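Data availability (excerpt). The following record was deposited with the supplementary files.
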Amino acid sequence: MPNRLKPWFVVLLAAATLPLLGAGGGTSTAKTPADASKALDPAKVERGRYLTTVMFCNDCHTPFKMGENGPEPDMSRMLSGHPASVKVTGAPAFDNGWASAANETNTAWAGAWGVSFTANLTPDVETGLGAWSEDEFVAAVRSGRHRGRGRPILPPMPWPFLSQASDDDLSAIYTFLRSLPPISNRVPDPIPPAAN
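Predicted structure:
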């Protein structure tokens, strides 16, 4: 099914989901996520749920499946990122003015930057945000770098827009993400443009 989204909608979608793209593995010396074992504040979880909904996080970080009315988020894999089972080897050829494209699950995006894959935002320790501290999450959103110090967070993640969120809102988003069931799903590394 061809993607017929209006360019402004794609930009809005991208802008609403960027700071969360930088999930992945690694270790940290920052404040550890020991707070994950504490009881989560229900009001903060609900605020984070609301924010991830209105910021369209599910539109990229939750894999799409074909439903009765066309593509829809597969909520059984909510915010688990690009499915490891869906292989992408490079970007499609662009012509007729197209500058970017998404795959059928809406979790792999191709453009001048190469191919980027939406991150697993669930609290899985090995493949998601489970080993991230809140400080690292906020630093990633504010800086556009993985864990606030690693590789750049790639398009379509709209981290420059989301970096303007308040500390309280980013804390609520982090808390909501910690409340999700962990889903083991190792998202591939980005494919650089030279490999296309």
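Summary of structural features: Confidence is low (pLDDT under 50) at residues 1-32.
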